[in-house]
From TrEMBL:
Family annotation (Gene3D superfamilies): YjeF N-terminal domain (3.40.50.10260)
Free-text remark on how the cofactor is bound: Binds 1 potassium ion per subunit.
InterPro entries reported in the protein's UniProt record: YjeF_N_dom (IPR004443), YjeF_N_dom_sf (IPR036652)
Gene from which the chain derives: nnrE
The organism's place on the tree of life at top rank: Bacteria
Every YjeF N-terminal domain range: 9-210
One MF term in the entry's GO annotations: nucleotide binding
Pfam families reported for this sequence: YjeF_N
UniProt-annotated binding residues for (6S)-NADPHX: N56, N57, G58, G59, D60, G124, T125, G126, F127, H128, G129, T130, D153
Protein name, UniProt field: NAD(P)H-hydrate epimerase
Organism from which the protein derives: Butyricicoccus porcorum
Family: Belongs to the NnrE/AIBP family.
Described purpose of this protein according to its UniProt entry: Catalyzes the epimerization of the S- and R-forms of NAD(P)HX, a damaged form of NAD(P)H that is a result of enzymatic or heat-dependent hydration. This is a prerequisite for the S-specific NAD(P)H-hydrate dehydratase to allow the repair of both epimers of NAD(P)HX.
Keyword Metal-binding belongs to the record: yes
Catalysis performed (reactions): (6R)-NADHX = (6S)-NADHX; (6R)-NADPHX = (6S)-NADPHX
């Protein structure tokens, strides 16, 4: 079982990119793997709500939104922190243009009452500190939705390396993590927030991990 810190994960991704697997392709692989795992857990789901942050964790969520819309599911995307800011998340956000995906701001999150599955794409390894008001509102919605709650990489509001759990953090039914486990997945403080943990292969070769983890 390989456990790596957020910084080590970044180094592994950098090695993979240098070896020809682009960051955009890693995001595609992460979103695709997570979508397949979530569908296998909830094959009867019809309505998906994806709560997206502005970083790459949100980008993984946009990949899922596209795949689900192409499969004919009803898809709602909440931009919990406004529009995405990273290059790859922006690319995947714009790939939703023309698809049957409802995009709404955080102010309208309470209207999303019909989701069978809620996907937490708010914060991944980039989370630090405490939840700010919009993030807290988004986490509160996810925790109280009553839907099956699947977190991408880690539940939002948890520090990947220390396992510190911010007040109001997401309490998931399923966490799909990418390439390697992170310390929070095994720490006593944070593990109970992850629900079932599934490790997804995102195509990074073994040699990219040499000397790490
Ligand atoms: N690298 C890759 O190629 C791949 C990465 N992958 C995925 O990317 C994830 C890592 O992405 P990432 O590094 O962009 O960080 P992410 O977790 O989205 O969060 C950063 C954002 O959160 C914000 N933020 C932080 N704390 C906050 C707070 N307390 N309250 C409010 N906001 C807060 C922060 O804002 P800032 O603090 O800068 O204002 C920033 O905007 C990783 O977990 C995996 O899912 C996969 O696709 C595989 C390929
Ligand atoms: K997340």
């Amino acid at each position: 079982m390989r456990i790596v810190t957020a910084a080590q994960m970044k180094q592994i991704e950098c090695n993979a990119d240098a070896g020809g697997l682009s960051y955009l392709q890693m995001m595609e692989n992460a979103g695709t793997a997570a979508y397949q795992i979530i569908r296998a857990h909830k094959p009867d789901a019809h309505v998906l709500a994806i709560v997206a942050g502005k970083g790459n964790n949100g980008g993984d969520g946009f990949v899922i939104a596209r795949l689900a819309a192409q499969d004919g599911l009803a898809v709602r995307v909440v931009l919990a922190e406004g529009e995405p800011v990273t290059v790859d998340a922006k690319t995947n956000f714009h790939r939703l243009d023309g698809l049957n995906v409802t995009v709404c701001p955080i102010e309208q999150i309470d209207r999303l009452t019909d989701a069978d599955v809620v996907i937490d794409a708010l914060y991944g390894t980039g989370f630090h500190g405490t939840l700010r008001p919009s993030g807290a509102k988004a986490c509160c919605f996810m925790n109280e939705s009553g839907a099956y709650l699947a977190a991408l990489d880690l539940p939002s509001g948890i520090h990947a390396d220390t396992g510190a759990v911010a007040e109001g953090a997401v309490h998931a039914d399923l966490t799909v993590t990418f390439d390697s486990y992170k310390p929070l997945h095994v720490q006593e403080t944070s593990k109970p927030y992850c629900g079932e943990i599934v490790l997804a292969d995102i195509g990074i070769s073994e040699e990219c991990h040499n000397g790490i983890g």
